[in-house]
Amino acid sequence: MPPLPLQQIQTHMDAQAWPQAWQLCQAQLQKNPDHGPLLTLAGEILIRTSHFKEAAALLQRALQQLPDSSTVYHLLGRVMLLLQEPVIAGRILHEGLSKDPEHAPLREALADLQSAQQTWSDAIRNYQLLLSTQPENPDLHRKLADALREHKDFHTAEIHYQQALALNDQSAASWHGLGQLELARQNGALAEQHFLKGRKFSNHPAAFDNSIGLARLEDGRVNEAIAAFKQGLEAEPHAAFIQINLANALRASGDFAATQALFEEGVAHHPEHPFFLTGLAQMVRQSDPHSELIQRMEQMVQHPDMVEQERIAMLYTLGRALDQSHAYDRAFTAYQQANRRRYQSQGLTDLHINIDLIARIRTLFNRPQATLVPNHSDGVVPLFIVGMFRSGSTLIEQILGSHPQVATTGERPHIANLLHQMPQRLGTTVVFPDCFSALKPDQAQPMAQEYLDALRSSCDAPNDPTITHITDKLLFNFLYLGVIAALFPHARIIHSVRDPRDTCLSIYFQNFTRGQRFMQSLEETAHYYRAYADLMRLWHRVLPMPIHDVVYEKMVEDPASEVKKLLEFVGLPWDDACMNHHQNRRSVQTASSQQVREPIYQHAKQRWKNYEKHLHGLQQILTEPQSPTLPNHPAAS
Q1: How far apart are the first and last CA of the chain?
Q2: What is the pLDDT of residue 637?
């Protein structure tokens, strides 16, 4: 019998001449149907030509003939991944590695599977093992960096992205990953730079246009983000992920008609795409608990093949629609399912970490602190809006931002970034808050100026000479008011306060893109609320500057009086525009983006009463001794 033309088949494959390779392979298989190497080549050809089911069948036959072939295990594992059979793929790859632990393609395929399954620790370990023998492999550095980024090890991730780019500075994937890292750090400007570099080397520029749009959104440049998304859609008109991001940007800009139209178009063209249906449901207020939209969502969330994060997002939206239509028990069930699923998927709670941080801050700042920086009475006045999520802070920012002398920055981590860098500035490994006592005035001055420069450059009117005040609405800055008082004695602190029951319930009902893990539990949120309230009482007592409490319920009952007090506190003259804040065209990217473009309404007051029978645990925690009643706010009893 003449030898099989395996080398000739391989030559065709190397030249990517798939029809010729398959024709030759098929002819030989008719004569030798159980030839292991031939079956292996045939399986690889079918993978390359996207005939995955046929490839799997041939590779299973190949494995029967070559039970110790690492190559067959690798190819079969890959094709099972392509067939969306991750459990089978994992079993095959593990079995192959047990026979040949040094086979790099097998280990890389397993690490890729673990990344896809978000088992980051396992993926990181396998990528590190691969790099120990392939330190000059840029793709492995990039894949490891991706996993480290998702694992929140940003520092080590950056090192490996830089190593990947040092080995191949034309890798679109590495530039994109580095941009994603800066997005995770909330550094939109630097993320955009990386995306722009990667775009030059990409065969799919629309994906980079989408990421550029997200980077611009991160920095509050909504109109520029819209332009980037539209550019991406010019290249890929039916790219659903870009359409969704464009719709969200249009919503942030206040163009609700265009937003709704885009979601309606998406539902028409992609009826099974959950984010289009979710987006449309968020735009259309529901009055009928049995509406077609609600029924479609109720059916879709039951689908067993739905991606879990998409299911969670839709459950939040379903809860909102049922709440609007006064079906409160059904609404609570939907919210409860959303939170339980997210709680189970995100790992251990971080409640104790957050409460421990508050306790350390209270211990270290339990007496008045010295001012470290002179009063910048002739400079821009920072307006720090602090408090808990869902307490009315976006309304406060929109009212202030309607004043012609006020610019807004939204939620920017400028203060947190300064404190993260503080140990390095001080030459110590001791982190905040413990390192703060070592800060000297000559070190504090440049920190304060750096913040003021960042505040000015990131606001929505950076070059307007008439601006005298700029808001910073990162609510968790309530943790850092001791630092703020020391660095910015000319600042004004505005504390957003709402009934604790409504605040905690509204947090539980909100699908935050960024948030703490404890927020998926009403009881844990209540415990955190108590710790937050204790800290705010301390700040009221020890800070050398006043704190102005804006009570949400008072604002909606008597807005004219409360707005007048607010403007007087920050040192601004009355302006009628502040009473017409809903006409302000500035972008709003928080969960309240639609609400703040309406006149002040009262239907969110005492919302908790609609759900009272579900809130026994929450109320018990909030009303225990040392209740979290805040200054100038009625008790939660």
Answers
A1: 92
A2: 33
